[in-house]
Design brief:
mainly alpha, DNA polymerase, domain 1, hpI Integrase, Chain A, 2 domains, two-stranded antiparallel sheet, 10 helices
């Protein structure tokens, strides 16, 4: 077995047998092929660096902290010369592979090698909180569906309900017509929906959009929101018409891109607006 995981043309170095033994151990532990390939590529680069810059090192027990530090500097300089310096996260992945190699020889093989903890990983800066969708973004979303189409009226009502109620997308998909007092839509400033686990309400805008959608439907299917596929055969089974969570998330992403939003919202993001609204 070679550290190239079957790739040809990879040069053999004095440290290659040590990498081969480590990769064989990883295979025996059923690590994923993606992880094995990442380890192989990283450690091949490290052994080639060691052969070029420290040819006197012929055993894993001879590797020192300064060698690994030099390898990290080499990676940064080589990537910068190519036009894109390695991120701290990518550097950490390279160093983590070397740490795993050392741990194998220290813990599993019981050899006197450099302690893996002597290799410090770069500190990763924590990203700030992700940008939140705003009510202005919601208005932009509502402008995207075509109200002349049945699916356009449906999608506007879905967006409005998610924002008004804070329902989870799975709960919204499970709604049936009987869960809504259709006869009262648009007649009250706040219309309550009685659900098994909660009572939520619709404001006037959500009521208006839902009424427009339901008034235009000429079917008897029970799901509150159904699929509308022109030219597709009709099914008598309600389950064939009920929307799924994946459908709603894809719909939101499509409209967000069309609206030019910098934040691509999920149904959960829209629900968070309702949860953050003052009571």
């Amino acid at each position: 077995m070679s550290s190239s995981l079957g790739r040809k043309g990879v040069p053999t170095t004095p440290l290659s047998p040590f990498v081969d033994a480590f990769l064989g151990y990883c295979i025996d532990r059923n690590l994923s092929l993606a992880t094995l390939d990442a380890y192989a590529q990283t450690l091949e680069r490290f052994t080639e660096f060691m052969q070029q810059h420290h040819p006197e090192v012929t055993s894993i027990a001879q590797v020192q902290v300064a060698d690994v530090q030099g390898f990290r500097r080499h990676l940064r300089q080589a990537s910068a010369a190519a036009g894109r310096e390695l991120s701290a996260g990518t550097q950490a992945k390279y160093l983590a592979a070397i740490r795993s190699l050392l741990r194998y020889y220290s813990v599993v093989q019981g050899q006197a090698v450099m302690l893996r903890d002597n290799i410090a990983l770069p500190k990763l800066t924590r990203a700030g909180p992700p940008p939140r969708i705003t009510r202005q973004d919601v208005q932009a979303l509502l402008q995207q569906p075509d109200p002349r189409k049945p699916w356009g009226r449906r999608d506007r009502a879905i967006i409005a309900l998610l924002v008004d109620t804070g329902l989870r997308v799975g709960e919204l998909c499970a709604l049936n017509r009987r869960d809504v007092r259709v006869d009262l839509l648009g007649k009250r400033p706040f219309l309550e929906l009685s659900l098994p686990n909660a009572a939520v309400g619709l404001g006037q805008e959500a009521q208006r959009l839902l009424k427009e959608y339901l008034d235009a439907r000429d079917d008897s299917y029970q799901p509150l929101f159904i699929r509308h596929k022109p030219g597709k055969a009709q099914h008598t089974d309600d389950a064939q018409h009920r929307l799924t969570r994946q459908m709603i998330d894809r719909m939101l992403m499509r409209y967000a891109r069309a609206a030019g939003l910098t934040v691509l919202p999920s149904a959960r993001d829209l629900a968070s607006i309702a949860q953050a609204a003052p009571s």
